[in-house]
User: Fold this.
Amino acid sequence: MLALVRSGRDRRALFVVFYLYFVFGLAFQLYPPLFDSIRDEFEVSQGAVSTLMTLFLVPMVILAIPGGLVADRLGIHRVAPTSLVVVMMGLLISAAAPSFSVLLLGRVLAGFGSAFLVVAAMKIVALSFPRERLGLALSVFAAGLPAATGVAFNGLSLLGWRGATVAGVAVAASGLFVFQLLAKEVRWVPMMDGPRLASTLAFRNGEVWRVAVVAFWGYMAIVSFTTWVPTTLVDYAGIALWLATLLASILLLIDIPLGPVWGRVSDRLGRRKPFVVGGFVVYLAGSLVVPYVALLPLTVATLGLLIAITFMGTGCAAFFPTASTIPAQSVGPELAGAAFGIFVTAQFLGMAVGPVVVGHVLDTTSAYLGFLAISLITGVGVVSAMALRSR
Assistant:
């Protein structure tokens, strides 16, 4: 990814934002492969376990817009390190949790820090790169989440949920070191007149709200898939948990090589909307195939799922880098914190609601209808993406 960027300063800026988003992604995605062990230890229901994801995201939904305004006002050098410390504190509480309620408390605190961390990282991109290069830059940033998902699902899950959480603390601490080490070499200045002007422009910009709606449906579909497919495939298709986890993680892992490609093509063409709409359509087509392929004989099902989920991943890779450029393009880099706050609020609201909705469908109906619910959510996303007015 970084090989596509020639400037050493730009590479350092991209490494910082990639790693910050990686820290968030790891903290967020630690538990889906370990839901069964957490449920067994604390004797709670499948729906209750899903609140581990929801309560992480609730403070992000509430605080992303204030976080953007604070980043505009105070600057990145203050907001990013403080948010990393708060994420570390939340993970430490979760790792030592003697009860499920304390585990949830730690998730809320980690989500509180993540709200400020993610918006600050996105503002770094807006301040560091011109409009015509935002697609590539935000695709590198976005790769932090799938990279973290791959590490959480296929590496840290082997440590058990407490061991994985301790590893998450170490990663967050290293993020603090990386930011402090590299931030001195990159100039990110705070906005001169505070959040008043930012809020006026961002909150009155219709396209910012339209792309926020797109982000809501997109991440509702994506995170409900990565949250429930690993454990659902075990019962629905008889696939081993480790293999189901690996297959589900491909949805986001494919973003790492393909995201920068789509972002760069989007930059060169100066077009965003076709990539957003196309990403949704591809994801929808793949999601409709998954429940049927999964019921084939195991070897054929595994190969079919690999192809279908990889296909869905190509849609994911086109979606975020192009959609996330629109807030900064709509209001300008100096005021991007508030606009990104609106975008991130919708993104994380979708991430919070999706697993709960699909988890309820799985609890009350069947695995097949759970898969169908994800497809329905994606279909609504297609319609919302077509309403965008950006080129």
